[in-house]
Structures are given as structure tokens and as C-alpha cells.
Predict the 3D structure of the following.
Amino acid sequence: PGQIGIDYAVTGTGMISPAIFRDHYLPYTKQYVEILHEGGKFYLDHSSGEPIRALLGMVKKSGVDGLYGLSVPHFGLGDATLEEMRSVLGPDVTLVAGMEPHLLATGTEKQIGEATKYLLDQCAEVGGRVMLGTADDTPYGTPAKNLAAVSEVVERYGYNL
């Protein structure tokens, strides 16, 4: 009954090469995208905060509906900006840009607020389907006040994206 299938294999060059993505990930991703689309469902791929620039063209060919766990260069380990991702992937792929897990878990409320505002601004600039999330996961022990800092910025500056 779920509407979204999420692939948690890591789509990023921190752990795999473009050749491994091309030869192994791309064929099965295309197959699963087709299966989910036939069922009227969406396919969301997970990048786990990894560099992704070298894979963007192949990700486009895979037909995924979205990428979750995107890290952006200014506040993270990512190597491609949301603008670069959008220019390759087009307006219909949902980009879920994210807060770095380490920053979320250990940063000050001010640092969290600045990073959240930066990410919201980037999402607004790039347009299309975008969401604010994390660049991977929310680590165990992340202080509730840090999560609240994200919410406060979204409530204060939130965009109708």
C-alpha cells in the first residue's frame, strides 16, 4: 500500500565508482523504477550525503523520481550544488537537501539555524520539487533543541516552494 519505494543503497562516489554505478546500480535501479511506476508509485534514491556529481547523468537515465540525503558543498561533503543537480536532473526530480548529521548532532543552535537558512535559500533558488531533510540520518543522541532550531528557522523563513 505504500506510495514510495526508497532504495537505501548509497548513490554516491564516496563508496562506489561511476563504473560500479553504471554496471550494477543503474540496471537494477531502472528495473525497480519501472516496477514501481507500473504500480503508480514513486522511486526515491538515497545518496547518503556522498559526492554525486559524477553520477548525475546516470541518475537521470535511471528514471528515479527523487534523491534523498543530498549534501551541499557549503555545509557538507557534497560536491554538487542543488543548481548543478537541477540542471542535469531536470525540474521533475525531487531533491531532498539536507543538514549534515554531524552538524545536527553536535552543532550549536546558531550553527544549526545558519545551516538551515542556507539550505532553505538554496531550495528556493533552485526551484522545482525540493524538500528539506538530512544529508543522511539523524544520529542517535541529537539534542532535541537542535531539531527545534531547524523547525524555528523553517517557521520563520519557510518558503512556499
